[in-house]
């Protein structure tokens, strides 16, 4: 798998892999972030840009920052747990935080978000990097989704939202402090799978930007009215058209300090999840014109190669991935699957290592403290070194590949002739499909597990090494699908089937991909 890439003017590398992100020559290639930043919202504060996204059962929503709208770094997490029933029991897959939306008011950055069963939540922070206020339950109710706050020029606050299964679009009056809704809401629009509303005001018009038509086949619609409650005119402003970018919608219209406009949207990209694109915007007759109208039907279509918003950037990079575990906490990019058990995660027990003390589970899907992160790019490689010397019988630890299936590869400890023996193994969901005992492996010899990822071919393959030089296949290559509204992830795990667990020490997690370099690997 060749990961060093050399871009050509056509937006591909010399191996034909599509380019993405900052190309380093004053242009960028969509997607700008070739990773699962689903249901994205972006806001500008001064000359900085901030991004968050839906994360469902993964803790918690990341906060990213950019100076140039294309190169992004992770600067914080909005929360690290959801203290509600089920989120510590590994039973809330596909629930948790759905599409969030930003607002900026009273010197604070605000986020409103719904969970499908518990209701509408709000938090705010003076610094986007945090700390964020604890999630406040604005309204306990089920099946609401996609809330967006809006403070009008007279100080009156509103909330626009959709409902589960997408629609209609409803506007509520809200207290200026965002802590309560003041009415039952007014329906202002009904459309085909109308969801994800984002409201703003320009030149005396109220605009609501909404995706319609569904995640994989939809388009972007703009509504506008002189009155916040309508009636609203509507216009389709972005669609797939003659391109291969399916479902280009659900995102944010952004104005730069120079008065230029841009539109962020996602694309449903299979195993990679919903990846982030950026399109230029012009205005004509009070309507945004997004991308380029290649087929001449009056509706914009997504572009692949686009000039950078502010010209050539000094440096091209992508969000953090790798972690040498040499700090006092795991890297800011890690997200646990469901709520963490903090006392079982340590960087202090062994210098330069992540130590996981496993909790009981029957299979990987039910294992607590799975540390996960998004896969990135078309081709990538993840690897880790497992110090198994403190593992005990029944412990299982390794490198995860998570989606609709739960694939884990690593070391499990078995008792043979009265002694613990490390076994290289692969589990597919709840079934061990490969095992190779290593009875002669010395305790000071870590096991290296590698996962090679090719999302274009949908091929994933594990391998292992006991000397760091020669890698052997670990089971057969396999296919993956995204699951629970999220793309495929990788990460680390440890769980046990025994009442007397040991500990697993991970020396590093290293991740390389085919885009611009990750910040943590420079």
Can you put this structure into words, describing what you see?
With 522 residues, the chain is mostly beta strands. The protein has no helices and 39 strands. It has strands at 21-22, 27-29, 41-45, 48-52, 58-59, 62-66, 73-77, 101-105, 108-115, 119-125, 136-139, 144-151, 157-163, 169-174, 186-189, 198-202, 205-212, 219-225, 233-238, 249-255, 261-268, 274-284, 287-290, 305-307, 335-337, 345-346, 354-356, 359-360, 371-374, 379-387, 395-402, 406-416, 419-428, 431-437, 447-454, 459-465, 472-473, 489-496, 504-513. The strands form 8 sheets. Strands 5, 25, 28, 29, 31, 32, 33, 34 and 38 form a 9-stranded mixed β-sheet that branches. A 7-stranded antiparallel β-sheet has the order 26-27-39-30-35-36-37, with no helix packed on it. Strand 26 and strand 27 (354-356) form a beta hairpin. Residues 1-10 have low confidence and may be disordered.
Throw out a few tags for this protein.
522 residues; mainly beta; nine-stranded mixed sheet; seven-stranded antiparallel sheet; 0% helix; 44% strand; disordered N terminus
Topology:
Elements: E1 21-22, E2 27-29, E3 41-45, E4 48-52, E5 58-59, E6 62-66, E7 73-77, E8 101-105, E9 108-115, E10 119-125, E11 136-139, E12 144-151, E13 157-163, E14 169-174, E15 186-189, E16 198-202, E17 205-212, E18 219-225, E19 233-238, E20 249-255, E21 261-268, E22 274-284, E23 287-290, E24 305-307, E25 335-337, E26 345-346, E27 354-356, E28 359-360, E29 371-374, E30 379-387, E31 395-402, E32 406-416, E33 419-428, E34 431-437, E35 447-454, E36 459-465, E37 472-473, E38 489-496, E39 504-513
């Amino acid at each position: 798998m060749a990961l060093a890439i050399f871009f050509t003017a056509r937006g591909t590398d010399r191996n034909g892999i599509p380019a993405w992100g900052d190309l380093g020559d004053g242009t960028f290639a969509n997607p700008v972030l070739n990773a699962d930043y689903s249901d994205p919202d972006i806001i500008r504060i001064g000359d900085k840009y901030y991004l968050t996204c839906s994360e469902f059962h993964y803790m918690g929503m990341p906060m990213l920052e950019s100076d140039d709208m294309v190169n992004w770094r992770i600067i914080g997490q909005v929360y690290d747990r959801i203290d509600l029933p089920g989120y510590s029991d590994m039973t809330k897959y596909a629930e948790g935080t759905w599409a969030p939306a930003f607002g900026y008011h009273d010197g604070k950055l605000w986020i409103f978000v719904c969970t499908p069963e518990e209701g509408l939540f709000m938090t705010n922070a003076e610094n986007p990097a945090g700390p964020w206020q604890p999630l406040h339950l604005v309204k306990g109710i089920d099946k609401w989704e996609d809330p967006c706050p809006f403070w009008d020029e007279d100080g009156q606050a509103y909330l626009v939202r959709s409902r589960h299964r997408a629609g209609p679009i409803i506007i509520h009056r809200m207290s200026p402090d965002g802590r309560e809704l003041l009415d039952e809401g007014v329906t202002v629009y009904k459309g085909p799978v109308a969801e994800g509303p984002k409201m703003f005001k320009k030149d005396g018009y109220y605009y609501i930007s909404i995706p319609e038509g569904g995640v994989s086949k939809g388009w972007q619609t703009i509504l506008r009215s002189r009155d916040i409650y309508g009636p609203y005119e509507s216009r389709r402003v972005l669609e797939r058209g003659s391109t291969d970018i399916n479902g280009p919608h659900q995102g944010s219209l952004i104005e730069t300090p120079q008065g230029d406009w841009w539109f962020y949207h996602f694309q449903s990209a299979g195993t990679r999840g919903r990846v982030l694109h950026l399109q230029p915007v012009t205005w004509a007759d009070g309507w945004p014109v997004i991308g380029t109208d290649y087929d001449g039907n009056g509706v914009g279509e997504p572009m692949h190669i686009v000039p950078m918003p502010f010209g050539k950037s000094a440096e091209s990079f992508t969000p953090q991935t790798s972690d040498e575990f040499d700090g006092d906490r795991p890297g800011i990019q890690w997200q646990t699957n469901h709520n963490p058990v903090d006392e079982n995660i340590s960087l202090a027990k062994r210098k330069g290592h992540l130590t996981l003390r496993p909790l009981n589970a029957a299979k990987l899907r039910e294992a607590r403290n799975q540390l996960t992160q998004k896969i990135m790019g078309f081709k990538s490689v993840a690897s880790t070194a497992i110090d198994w010397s403190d593992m005990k019988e029944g412990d299982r630890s390794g490198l995860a590949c998570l989606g609709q299936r739960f694939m884990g590869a690593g070391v499990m400890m078995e008792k043979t002739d009265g002694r613990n023996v490390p076994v290289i193994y692969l589990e597919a969901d709840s079934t061990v499909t490969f095992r190779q005992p290593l009875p002669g492996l010395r305790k000071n010899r870590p096991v290296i597990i590698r996962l090679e990822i090719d999302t274009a071919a949908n091929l994933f393959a594990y391998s292992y090494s006991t000397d760091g030089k020669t890698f052997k296949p670990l089971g057969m290559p396999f296919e993956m699908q995204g699951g629970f509204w999220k793309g495929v992830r990788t990460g680390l795990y440890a769980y046990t089937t025994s009442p007397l667990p040991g500990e697993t020490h991970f020396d590093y997690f290293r991740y390389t991909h085919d885009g611009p370099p990750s910040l943590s690997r420079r």
